[in-house]
Structures are given as C-alpha cells and as structure tokens.
C-alpha cells in the first residue's frame, strides 16, 4: 500500500550537523506555510488510500493540536496502519501526546541523537538524558508505546565510553525501535563549514576518525541485538513487529506522495521533488503554480539494488538483473561484501560498513 510524507521544516533551533531543508523561522511564516501545505494536500487527487503517514521536518511536533488535526484530517485513509510524527525532546507533555493520538498519530520518533550532555550541547540540542526518560514515560502512560529513538555515531568528542553511556540508556528505556546514523559531514551544515575551514567551533576538531565511528556503529549493532533489537535496515533496528512500516516503503520501492518543502514523491515509475525554500513554496502555492522542481524516471533495476540492499533481508534479483550486474555481484561475493543464498542477495556485516562503495557499482 502507498504512503504519505508531510514536511514541516521549522525548528526551535538549527542543529550544527543539520543539512536538511529546515530552519528557524518566525511564527508568521509558519502560519503561511501551514496554509500552503493544506492547499497542496487539498488539490491532490489521491488515486489510492494511503495506509501510512509520516510527518517529518524540521520539528512537526511544533504544530498546535488544532493545526495537526487539520493537516492529518486532509489526508484520506484514516485510521492508518501507522502515522508517525518526529519530535524534538524537551517540550513533550501528556496533553500534547493526547492531541497527537486524537489526530491519528500512533508512532513517535524522538530525535535524541545522544544521551551525553557534552555531546548534546555541541549539536545545539537542549534536552538531557533525564528529560528523554521522563518523556518516554509520558508516551507510554498516554498509550503511545510505539516509538523510535534516534542516535548518531561520530558526534564531536564522542568516544567508545560515551557511546556506551548512550547505549546503556537505550537498554534502560527499552524502546521498540532505534535508528543509528553514522555522522556525515555536509558542507551545507554549520559543522561541515567549520570542518572545511579547519575551525574549532561546534567541536569540529574532535570529530572521531572514520575507524572509530565504524567501531561505534558495530558496537551498537551488537549491543542492540543483545537486548532484542535487531537490525532490519542499515540504520534501523527494531523489536519484532515494530519495524517502521512507512520507511519500509522507500526500501521496497512502494509508491508514496510527499507534501511540503523538499518533499519527494514516487509513483512507481517517476520521482518528484518539491522546492527547497519555504518562501518559494508559499509563493508558488499562492500563485497557483506547481511546487515540483524535479521529475526523473526511476531506474527500477538500479534502485532495486542500491535501495533494496539496505535491508537486512536483502533482495531477490530477477534473471535480467543477475545478468546485467554479473560482474559487480561476482566481485563483491569474492571480496566478502555480499552473500548469496537460494537466489537471495544481501550485504555482509563488512559490506554494510562499505555499503556506499557497493551501491555505487549498481548505478550505470
């Protein structure tokens, strides 16, 4: 079944590592954006009923309850199998969670990133480990027990000791889902620009070496597996039955439609992208213009490999795909980056760490 992604690109503060199409804006712009967002959804002709909805950003949890109900109320298919909202820890209340539940939300993704105070302060995040623990209890008490915790491996100043501190909190809080991302230095982020300039702000000189970041990630894989949270995608881990239904659509090449700034869509054959600027997005909607700036034809075979291989279950290439990619498949099998069993192809543990190099060979 298809899904819906909704972008709300506003935050209380901009994290130092962030390169997303999000920023800190005035309330006036947020109001105009909400109006444009509702307009874009209302004019869309749904050819199918979505069974998942994902509100990302930015920080969509900034939306007032009445506005969240307007946004989700404009999307057909409720009640959905899964409706996720991304949340920045630090402002969660029981009243707010009840509003989310009432609007149809049944899953929450907490952008924790780290449980270590020094690491958090360098990212610009304002929460503490204790605040996260309190808010997890609020979620559970309010009946929203399906939640995810984000962590980042490779933050400035991070060590194996501090990383284990964050993993200890994961064990203590017992989330059903955890995402672990290895920090990517992007020149469009404040941290990335500081690194390029050889500056000292944001802890830039203390970014761990690639080898340590890889060790942090592998430690997370082992520790999460030990407590029953298994990797089902390169960056995503879940207890059985708690995998993200919406995100699985991306990796299995299911169709979805995106609304809002920098939102992407896929109809099974074509990929679309919206404009990246909130002001341009608002102006285009007010002028009755399309918000889409890019349309590309999907290459199903290539995407089957470089998207599908992200999944721990791997992929089952068809006869044409085996023939087309015979050379890189054989090479990666020999090098121990891929493994094949009964017609199924998947990354090995070593292949996961070198996945970008593997994926690049399947793009012609």
Low-confidence stretches: none
Question: What structural category characterises the helix and strand content?
Answer: alpha/beta
Q: Helix count?
A: 15
CATH fold label of the largest domain: TIM Barrel
- Percent strand: 15-25%
State the total count of DSSP E strands: 14
**How does the overall form come out from the CA principal axes?**
globular
Largest sheet: 9 strands, mixed
CATH class term of the largest domain: Alpha Beta
Strand order of the largest sheet: 7-8-6-5-4-3-2-1-9
CATH architecture term of the largest domain: Alpha-Beta Barrel
Question: What report would you give on this structure?
Answer:
This protein has helices at residues 27-43, 65-73, 94-103, 117-123, 129-141, 160-173, 190-196, 210-226, 245-251, 278-286, 300-306, 319-324, 326-334, 349-353, 355-360; strands at 3-8, 52-57, 82-87, 107-113, 147-153, 177-182, 230-233, 236-238, 256-259, 264-266, 270-274, 292-297, 338-341, 344-347. The chain has 364 residues and is an alpha/beta fold. It folds into two domains: 3-251, TIM Barrel (Alpha-Beta Barrel); 301-360, no CATH class. The strands form three sheets. It has a nine-stranded mixed sheet with strand order 7-8-6-5-4-3-2-1-9, with helices on both faces. It has a three-stranded antiparallel sheet with strand order 10-11-12, with no helix packed on it. A two-stranded antiparallel sheet has the order 13-14.
Summarize the structure.
The protein is α/β, with parallel strands linked by helices. 39% of the residues lie in helices and 20% in strands. The protein is globular, with a radius of gyration of 21 Å.
């Amino acid at each position: 079944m298809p899904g819906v992604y909704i972008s709300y690109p506003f935050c209380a503060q901009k994290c130092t590592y962030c390169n997303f199409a999000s920023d800190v804006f005035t309330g006036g712009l947020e109001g105009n954006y909400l109006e444009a967002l509702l307009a874009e959804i209302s004019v869309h002709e749904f050819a199918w009923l979505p069974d998942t909805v994902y509100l990302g950003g930015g920080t969509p949890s900034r939306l007032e309850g009445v506005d969240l109900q307007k946004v989700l109320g404009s999307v057909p298919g409720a009640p959905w199998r899964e409706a996720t909202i991304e949340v920045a820890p630090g402002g969660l209340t029981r009243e707010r969670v009840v509003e989310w539940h009432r609007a149809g939300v049944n899953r929450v993704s907490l952008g924790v990133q780290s449980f270590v105070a020094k690491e958090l302060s360098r990212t610009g995040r304002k929460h503490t480990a204790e605040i996260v623990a309190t808010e997890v209890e609020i979620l559970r008490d309010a009946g929203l027990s399906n939640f995810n915790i984000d962590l980042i491996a490779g933050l400035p100043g991070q060590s194996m000791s501090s990383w284990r501190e964050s993993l200890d909190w994961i064990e203590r809080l017992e989330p059903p889902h955890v995402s672990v991302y290895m920090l990517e230095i992007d020149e469009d982020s404040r941290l990335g620009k500081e690194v390029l300039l050889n500056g000292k702000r944001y802890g830039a000189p203390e970014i761990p070496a690639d080898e340590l970041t890889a060790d942090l990630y592998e430690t997370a894989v082992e520790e999460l597996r030990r407590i029953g949270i298994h990797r089902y995608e390169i960056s995503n881990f879940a207890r059985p039955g708690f995998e993200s239904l919406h995100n699985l659509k991306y990796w299995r090449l299911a169709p979805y439609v995106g609304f809002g700034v920098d939102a992407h869509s896929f109809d099974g054959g074509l990929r679309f992208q919206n404009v990246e600027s909130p002001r341009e997005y608002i102006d285009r909607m007010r002028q009755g213009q399309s918000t889409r700036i890019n349309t590309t034809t999907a290459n199903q075979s290539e995407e089957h490999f470089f998207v599908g291989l992200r999944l721990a279950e791997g992929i089952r290439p068809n006869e044409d795909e085996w023939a087309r990619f015979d050379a890189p498949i054989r090479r990666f099998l020999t090098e121990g980056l891929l493994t094949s069993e009964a017609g199924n192809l998947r990354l090995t543990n070593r292949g996961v760490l070198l996945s970008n190099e593997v994926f690049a060979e399947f793009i012609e």
